Amino acid sequence: MHIDRLERYWIIAVGVVLGAFGAAIVASVVVFGVRLPSPVGRIDPAKIKESEFATPGLTQDGDHTYTLRIVAKMWKFDVGTKEPQPTIKIPAGSRLKILATSLDVTHGFYVEQHDVNVMLLPGQISQVDVTFNKPGVFHIICHEYCGPGHQAMVATIEVNEGN
Ligand SMILES: [Cu+2]
Fold first, then answer.
1. Most buried one in 20, 73, 87, 112, CB count within 10 A?
2. How many whole angstroms from 101 Cα to the centroid of ligand 1?
């Protein structure tokens, strides 16, 4: 079979590019440990008051390690406080295990400047582990349109100069 010289070059070039993409995917998993956010459990939204999400909020597990339980609902990230837009305060260098679920509809969960971008589905518990090294104020934003109060669905993580 005759393959034109230019055509052969293009076949090789496409092969190299596809190979590089494949290598990048393998490297992201094997070398850099990138994982898709995955559900860690199921929950009946009607029985949320009988679950670990009955008292959402921040608990300290150890030195600079915390668990944050969040219930997303129209139109608030509930962390167990009365504020409509709550603030979670942690020291710099904290490792946060975020467990989140939705009470009603699909919500989004995005933390600015950090590697957190999850969809919160009713009936599903999602987990994200993230370290906050840099002091600052970082918003948690709902990025899935969830109804007329969607734009007010904001919480804040305040990372203070820690020790
Ligand atoms: Cu929303």
1. 73
2. 13
Taking 50 as the pLDDT cut, the residues of the chain under it are: none
Ligand 1 centre to CA of 17 (Å) is 38
- Give the whole-angstrom CA distance, residue 149 versus residue 81: 19
The residue extents of the domains of the chain are: 1-34, 38-160
Distance CA 31, CA 37 (A): 18
CA of 1 to the centre of ligand 1 (A): 58
- pTM of this prediction exceeds 0.85: no
CA of 102 to the centre of ligand 1 (A): 11
In the prediction, which pLDDT does 14 show?
98
| Helices and strands in the chain: count of H runs, count of E runs | 1, 11
Structure tokens at 75: 């139109």
Could you confirm whether domain 38-160 is CATH 2.60.40.420?
Answer: yes
Going from the Cα of 108 to the center of ligand 1, the distance in angstroms, rounded, reads 6
